Amino acid sequence: MKKENKVEFVKEPKGINLEYDDLSPFTGNKCVLIEADEKTGMESRICMESGMTTTDRFSVGSRAIEQYEKFVPQLYRDTKFVDTTLNQVWYLSTMRTHIACLYAQGTNKDNYDWRLAVVRTLEEAEKEKYPVEGKPGEFHTHIVDVENAQIYSKNDFKSAIDEFYSIIGKNWDQPVNTEK
Fold this sequence. Notes:
The strands form two sheets. The protein has a six-stranded antiparallel β-sheet, with no helix packed on it. Strands 7, 8, 9, 10 and 11 form a five-stranded antiparallel β-sheet that branches. The chain has three helices and eleven strands, in the order ββββααβββββββα. By secondary structure, the chain is of the alpha+beta class.
């Protein structure tokens, strides 16, 4: 029987409290959330302590892995983990919304950290630095502010994701940037 996990945003969350579904193959702790898409039955998992994630699409030897690895940084390929129990591959997480982005950055599996960058509106004077590709005279109005990203150690994903959800909860009503 599947448990329903619900995240409720409140005005000033101090962190998120969730019921975890499974043991982590990384920490041995019960800190894995499992989410299922009702329409497709596709399951996704995230270890809330290590920041590693997997999905049914990432079964060992699948074409989805080949496609995914074409577009992720080398760090994500270097840190992947083959889970022989699930017959799936786990990768470092990337979480993006119209408000913030949480991602791993570094040079190798021993030297990386977690970055939390917010999406910010560009000042008029800045916009010319960010032209819209293929649309002369048009400029982006928002950027993911990686220059001012908060940095968390590789072993502190829990703090990074807590802050990610806190930022989202405080800003959820912010309009979605629809520029292409």
